[in-house]
From TrEMBL:
<feature type="domain" description="Fe2OG dioxygenase">
    <location>
        <begin position="783"/>
        <end position="886"/>
    </location>
</feature>
<dbReference type="GO" id="GO:0005524">
    <property type="term" value="F:ATP binding"/>
</dbReference>
<keyword id="KW-1133">Transmembrane helix</keyword>
<dbReference type="Pfam" id="PF14226">
    <property type="entry name" value="DIOX_N"/>
</dbReference>
<dbReference type="GO" id="GO:0016491">
    <property type="term" value="F:oxidoreductase activity"/>
</dbReference>
<dbReference type="InterPro" id="IPR005123">
    <property type="entry name" value="Oxoglu/Fe-dep_dioxygenase_dom"/>
</dbReference>
<keyword id="KW-0812">Transmembrane</keyword>
<keyword id="KW-0472">Membrane</keyword>
<feature type="transmembrane region" description="Helical">
    <location>
        <begin position="217"/>
        <end position="237"/>
    </location>
</feature>
<keyword id="KW-0479">Metal-binding</keyword>
<dbReference type="Pfam" id="PF00005">
    <property type="entry name" value="ABC_tran"/>
</dbReference>
<dbReference type="GO" id="GO:0046872">
    <property type="term" value="F:metal ion binding"/>
</dbReference>
<dbReference type="InterPro" id="IPR003593">
    <property type="entry name" value="AAA+_ATPase"/>
</dbReference>
<keyword id="KW-0560">Oxidoreductase</keyword>
<dbReference type="InterPro" id="IPR027443">
    <property type="entry name" value="IPNS-like_sf"/>
</dbReference>
<keyword id="KW-0547">Nucleotide-binding</keyword>
<dbReference type="InterPro" id="IPR003439">
    <property type="entry name" value="ABC_transporter-like_ATP-bd"/>
</dbReference>
């Protein structure tokens, strides 16, 4: 073995054939004793946990544990018994040779020992069975007591902690349900094995010493010296040719690795299809034969090096001499004339037999699968598990919180959040991220692969814990909530999820509460709705067991193993098992079917869990075709409301606060002052409207309002189109009557008008169009536009019963920007599935409604948002609505926007789902100028203004004359 140089002083290098070996320099005697001392101290420190675990194992199954210890120690007693029998038989033989007879007492003793030895096989069978039965009892007790605790602990961890080595070392393996491989049983087996070997060695030494001491001093001395030499040799003799140390090895021989690669290509069938397809067989065979010749015979190969290098010849000779003490007896026999040769020989044979037995037992101790230190470390690791908390912390708050949470959804806030997914990566998965999401919002998270989108969702679901920064839900730090209750309020659909090895019914419903599951057992249609929404209904219907089918049952050992002498299992027996046993094989489903089932699971929770506040979707349709993908997202969109909250907008918070403060004061003016500003005095349809002063779709609204526009002078002249009368200055209260009102509202108007132009461009991009695509509906510089603004007051119902502030309708505008000025939850919007959903006020946000003009401009790609307002109970509700409009010279029907095909496909899928004709056609009115359409809508709602300022048009819109006073709208709640 040639020596090679090493860059590390404590590391030695050597060459064995084509392999290079690296090993640690063998310790000096001083280092050996220092290591022995440190190991002794470590053993003592770990002894406390070992004693604790032994005590716990004893407590869970006290009787079984005690009997198990007796069964384990029986082989030690048996070994000592066999030594006694051997000594008496050899001594009796020596007496018979010398005296030609054996004493009667000794014969009786030998008979008793022989009888005992004949009974030992029966005792062995008994204690082996006792050990087996007791071990099963102990395993059951450990599993019954500790496994539920381990389950609760590990399921409470975040993912980083759950996969940590210290945690995984304690938990049972998932495949070992019927095979106890727990750390507690591993500890008990390792400890009892060591104790058994030590007790056996101690009893053997005691018996050997006692028997030799009964002979004479020379026998005793030689025996003790032999045992001492044996023990010393067994401790210090190296176990391999490198001094007993572990080592690593490698080779730089190119043919070795090339041959290994070719060997795998030839004999691993996973390469076979590609190999045959490419026609590469001749190349592979030629290379395989060439490398085999170049490598030639290996005097040292990986198998030899793996199992250990042989020790040097002198160590082997020494070991033979120590393990054969009979040689020493033969060499010393002539010098002991006082002892008969027969006695000397039989004593030597006994010592030979005894030392061989002792040597084998000491070797077991030394080469045991787990040394004592490692066995004690198992107990230490086990109890350290219960002290692990990881980076995951949670408080005692349940979600939803009674005082902070809203039924419309979660309010989410990230502030300077950082997250490192792995310590091996220098680049954080999430770096200094801050954002806010209002309840009920629809948010699209966009970024390139690896940008941290999925990591953000994992942090939100508390699967991981952020490295830095703050995350809050509904204004409360996320760590203050119970993680389980928070997750129960989320529906999270990730890129890859697993189907549980349970029935499809259990897969779909297991995330529901106990009460929900109990109800759903009675409501089978809940499963049908969820499966249809997720698209899994077709393949479920084709299964024999339908919802009771287990797609991937957990496998079991269903046949005996011939390794343990059970014999070969015949085909007839296998057929009997297949015919009668539960199915153990998986039902193959495609990745697309799997994703449909997982989506159905999300819909099941979304439809039935009472506290769901957040839906998170993370690319769950990567294995689906385009149609299936559209269907699933269309299903999720049915749970949306067709509106959105707009936060982080450019309208200053101070301006919004001033509007909220001064707008309600207008309605506190004397009625006479408000009547002077009545809309009937404005041909621009500006001014004040009293309760029920406006009619929408032949129904009256129960609200007061003040209408105004921007500061614009009316430029209409006789002979020009009537719709130009819509432009003009509003009617404002006197400055001394309401100081600052006009300036505040016009400042607000200008800010929101500027916001509307910017937001329209964002809408265009969201539709897959260019940012300026919607500009075709607006005149350059917006010169002929005058968006409208309303301050609305909905009076409280006097009798405390709910009424209708305004009936269900859609706005005629392009987009509506609504500021809810008071904390009333009476605004409701209708989602695509036909449900009315409340839209509670959010601080410093606008509610954006899609108007009828936008619906026509996009040919119903973006349908208008139906909404209504219920009359508040108690204090009045105030809001400020801004209605953006298109150019008055625009004809909507003349413009066809170039939508991407995927947007049109989504519209088609939505319309089909809702049973709506997807073919959009314009009405005759849509062929008219937008100004004429807007004017007609105003004229229909305000007969008094029409009669006064538009007399030529009055008879056209009111052929039967001015209508009677509209009703109060109380009956409109049902709509």
């Amino acid at each position: 073995m040639s020596r090679l140089s090493s860059s590390t002083p404590d590391i030695k290098r050597a060459q064995k054939g084509i392999f290079e070996i690296a090993f640690e320099r063998p310790r000096s005697l001083r280092a050996f004793f220092q290591n022995f001392k440190s190991n002794l101290q470590l053993t003592w420190s770990r002894l406390r946990d070992a004693v604790r675990l032994v005590k716990d194992l004893c407590l869970v199954s006290p009787v079984a544990f005690c009997l198990y210890v007796v069964a384990v120690l029986w082989p030690s007693v048996l070994s000592a018994l066999y030594l006694c029998l051997a000594a008496f038989l050899l001594q009796a033989g020596a007496e018979f040779v010398v005296q030609s007879q054996i004493a009667d007492a000794k014969i009786e003793t030998i008979k008793e020992l022989c009888a005992a030895s004949l009974l030992c096989p029966f005792a062995n069978a008994f204690f082996e069975q006792l050990r087996y039965q007791c071990s099963r009892r102990i395993k059951h007790g450990f599993r019954e007591h500790f496994y539920p605790i381990l389950a609760r602990r590990t399921l409470a961890f975040d993912l980083d902690t759950a996969i940590a080595p210290d945690v995984q070392a304690v938990l049972p393996q998932p495949w070992a349900f019927e095979m106890d491989n727990s750390i507690g049983w591993e500890f008990l087996c390792g400890l009892t094995c060591i104790v058994q070997n030590l007790v056996t060695a101690a009893l053997q030494i005691f018996v050997i010493s006692a028997i030799l001491a009964s002979r004479n001093l020379i026998h005793f001395t030689l025996g003790i010296l032999g045992c001492t030499a044996l023990l010393t040799t067994m401790i210090f003799i190296p176990t391999n040719g490198l001094g007993g140390v572990g080592y690593s090895f490698w080779t730089h021989h190119p043919s070795y690795y090339h041959l290994a690669a070719l060997h795998e290509i030839i004999f691993d069938t996973k390469y076979r299809e590609t190999l045959l397809k490419d026609g590469s067989i001749n190349f592979v065979l030629h290379e395989y034969e060439r490398c085999t010749r170049e490598l030639g015979f290996l005097s040292f190969d990986a198998e030899m090096l793996t199992y250990g290098l042989p020790v040097a010849w002198y160590w082997q000779i020494l070991q033979v001499l120590v393990e054969t003490p009979l040689i020493g007896f033969f060499l010393t026999n002539p010098s002991n004339k006082g002892i008969s040769s027969a006695t000397w020989l039989t004593t030597g044979l006994f010592v030979q037999f005894a030392t061989r037995q002792l040597g084998q037992n000491v070797k077991k101790v030394r080469q045991s699968q787990k040394p004592l230190l490692e066995v004690l470390a198992l107990a230490e690791t086990f109890y350290k598990f219960f002290a692990i908390h990881g980076s995951f912390s949670e408080g005692g708050r349940s979600y939803p919180d009674e005082t902070h949470s809203l039924p419309s959804g979660m309010r989410i806030s990230f502030r300077h959040v950082n997250f490192h997914r792995s310590s091996l990566s220098a680049r954080p998965a999430v770096k200094d991220v801050s954002f806010d999401i209002a309840p009920g919002s629809f948010v699209l998270l966009v970024g390139e692969n690896g940008s941290g989108k999925t990591s953000l969702l994992h942090l939100l679901s508390r699967l991981f814990t952020s490295s830095a920064g703050d995350i809050s839900i509904d204004g409360i730090p996320i760590q203050d909530f119970e993680a389980q209750s928070l997750r129960e309020s989320m529906v999270t659909l990730l890129q890859s999820e697993e189907v549980y090895p349970l029935s499809i019914r259990e897969n779909l419903s297991m995330s529901l509460t106990e009460s929900d599951r109990a109800q759903d057992r009675l409501k089978a249609q809940s499963f049908d709705i969820a499966s249809k929404s997720g698209g899994s209904n077709h393949f479920i219907e084709n299964l024999v067991g339908k919802y009771e089918t287990v797609l991937n049952p957990v496998g079991r050992f269903n046949t005996s193993s011939d390794v343990f002498g059970n014999g070969v299992v015949s085909p007839v027996v296998l057929e009997e098992m297949y015919r009668n046993a539960p199915r153990a094989s998986s039902i193959p489903i495609s990745n697309g079917e799997k994703q449909r089932l997982i989506a159905s699971r999300a819909f099941m929770k979304l439809n039935n869990h009472p506290d769901v506040r957040l839906l998170v979707v993370d690319e769950p349709t990567t294995s689906l075709d385009a149609r299936a993908e559209r269907d699933i997202f269309a299903g999720f969109r049915e749970h949306s409301s067709g509106f959105l909250y707009l936060s982080n907008h450019p309208v200053p918070g101070q301006v919004i606060a001033q509007v909220k403060a001064i707008a309600p004061k207008f309605f506190e003016l004397p009625q006479s002052a408000k009547d002077e500003l009545d809309m009937k005095n404005s041909m621009h349809f500006h001014g004040y409207l009293k309760v029920s002063g406006e009619t929408l779709s032949n129904d009256a609204s129960v609200r007061e309002q003040f209408n105004f526009g921007g500061a614009r002078v009316c430029s209409w002249k006789e002979g020009e189109p009537e719709y130009l009368k819509l432009h003009g200055e509003a009617l404002w209260p006197q400055e001394e009557a309401l100081p600052g009102f006009r300036d505040t509202m016009l400042t607000y108007y200008n800010h929101v008008e500027d916001l509307s132009y910017k937001f329209t461009r964002l809408v265009s991009e969201a539709l897959g169009l260019s940012a300026d695509a919607l500009d075709v509906f607006f005149d350059k510089d917006h010169g002929n536009l005058q968006p409208r603004c309303k301050i609305l007051r909905y009076p409280g119902t006097p009798d405390g019963k709910p009424g209708s502030g305004i009936a269900a309708h859609v706005d005629g505008s392009f987009l509506t920007y609504l500021l809810q000025a008071t904390d009333h939850r009476t605004l409701e919007v209708k989602n695509l599935s036909g449900e009315w959903i409340p839209v509670p006020p959010k601080e410093n946000t606008f509610v954006i409604n899609l108007g009828k003009t936008l619906e026509k401009a996009t040919r119903r790609v973006l349908p208008a948002t139906p909404h209504r307002v219920l009359s508040p109970i108690g204090e009045p509700r105030f809001s400020v609505a801004f209605f953006s409009s298109i150019g008055h010279e625009i004809r909507v029907a003349e413009h066809n926007l170039p939508f991407p095909q995927e947007v049109l496909d989504m519209k088609l899928a939505r319309d089909k789902k809702l049973g709506v004709d997807s073919n959009f056609s314009f009405s005759e009115r849509d062929m008219e100028l937008a100004g004429e359409v807007v004017l007609a809508r105003k004229l229909r709602s305000h007969a008094d203004v029409t009669e006064r300022f538009y007399p030529a048009l009055f008879s056209k819109f009111y052929p039967e004359g001015r209508p009677a006073k509209p009703n109060t709208g109380r009956n409109l709640l049902s709509k």
